[in-house]
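ugh ok fine here u go
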Amino acid sequence: MPGTPDIVLPKYGAVVEVRGCFWHRHEAARCRIATVPASNVEFWAEKFARNVERDRRNAAKLRRQGWRVLVVWECDVRKDIDKVADRLERLLGAAG
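structure:
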C-alpha cells in the first residue's frame, strides 16, 4: 500500500496514518512539536518538504484506490485522545 499506513481496516475501507508532528510537519501555528532545528536549516527544510510531499502523494494514491484516509497527529493523541477516538468512530460509522 502506498506509504504503508499504520492501521489498515479493510472491512471499513479505511486506513489510519499516525504522523509525528516534527517529521511530517504538523501546522506550526497549531503545534509546538513541529519545531525547526536551528542548525543546517536548508537541509531540514528540504527534508521536511520531501516528507510532506510524499505524505500528500501517498494519501492521494490511497484515495484513488478507494481507501478513506484518517490522519492522526502525535500532538492530538497526547492532548485529546477522546477527540481522536471520536474522529475514528465517525470514519468507521461512515462506512456502514
